[in-house]
Amino acid sequence: MYTLSEENYLKSIYRLSQQSNFKITPTAIAESLKNNPASVVDMIRKLTDKQLIEYDKKKGVKLTPVGLKDAVLIVRRHRLWEVFLLEKLGYHWDEIHDIAEELEHISDATLADRLDKFLGFPEYDPHGDPIPKANGKVPKPYSVTLADLKIGTNCRVAAVKDTSSSFLQYLQKLDIGIGTNIKLLEKITYDNSLVISINDKENTTVSQKFGENILVD
Amino acid sequence: MYTLSEENYLKSIYRLSQQSNFKITPTAIAESLKNNPASVVDMIRKLTDKQLIEYDKKKGVKLTPVGLKDAVLIVRRHRLWEVFLLEKLGYHWDEIHDIAEELEHISDATLADRLDKFLGFPEYDPHGDPIPKANGKVPKPYSVTLADLKIGTNCRVAAVKDTSSSFLQYLQKLDIGIGTNIKLLEKITYDNSLVISINDKENTTVSQKFGENILVD
DNA sequence: ATATAAAATTAGTCTTAACTAATTTTATAA
DNA sequence: TTATAAAATTAGTTAAGACTAATTTTATAT
Ligand SMILES: [Mn+2]
Ligand SMILES: [Mn+2]
Ligand SMILES: [Mn+2]
Ligand SMILES: [Mn+2]
Question: Which of A114, A171, B87, B171, by CA, is between 20 and 30 Å from B201?
Fold first, then answer.
């Protein structure tokens, strides 16, 4: 149906549309895919011709209903495979993303639904991201970050925004995973560092960037 | 490591080297991959440069030790995924080959071994083909076909040579699968058709071609 | 309003992996 | 042995999807 590149662009545009309200520009897409804006312009033309996106210099790139539906299905496959890799094959949560980047492109009409069933219809992937349903409905993702909380609040780690190995391995070192209980004790005025207590244990200080990449419940 | 095309060529050359002693020519490879001999000549040059094959006009194409090792690993992945698709996701044996053709190219150092373990280290894939071991050893495949048997012999279906949907669906209709018991009752002299009894049930006549594509134990 | 910087676009190049058409080499049959 | 057919190879083309460099458009700051 789609080429590998087309799918990666669709997914990238979808992700950008989810993670903020900024205009989706060729440069933004180029950054997210780590390629050249000139290449992006070419692909924008191609996807526009295929009626998967619309591009307006003022409004930026938008997925059409068809483009959105298919982007969501790719994300669905990605997240289901991540669950499989972690739960069935015993990978750690910092190893699964790159493999799922390849698996998500396997095209078979019933594969995702069978995998979904096999995994017991999981709601969230191992990073706390919601898994789109077979009908294309996407459960609402978590949106409040650790950095948004008021001093003294207790919370549960629900998801991570950054899925890079370095961030996930740092979390592992701090004994933080999905479900971990965190209490925000103090915000350092100087640089917005956060003093937290992890699972009621001794205090730890983390950066603002760190706090902004943890979604809580 | 390798491109999709390189992997498909390696696998194709490996398969040709397994299924007969004929010289592996550009034309033979072209047929097996359904593409043009001219394209094959290009790729032979490329794989030769990479020292994965050797090509001699007299002897044809041969895999080098490195090429052989990697071809076997691709086949290993293919067959393991076939087991997964059948046993875990509930596909039928005529549906799995094409999906495994895509899955076999997922490259991750430990994926095949984890999958192998998850599946309980299966010896054979759903078509009866032996699954190469992690160390590259390939169990000996079955080699005696139904057409090779003497009249009156009883046998167990061990593997199928042809994995096309049409053949597998025909087998399904006849209630023949891996493990089915077959007794060869008669060979029709005229066209080598075979009269067989399936699981001791009523007699059926099948073609010579059919008999040559069933491997027995 | 104008200068400057950033973003978008165009033009042209490259690589991979296919193809067709033409040619050369090798095998086969009369 | 020679004619013919088949196979292999070469030459040239195409398409996708990336790139760089140059240019044009748009945004931002003085
Ligand atoms: Mn991921
Ligand atoms: Mn994830
Ligand atoms: Mn197969
Ligand atoms: Mn098989």
Answer: B87
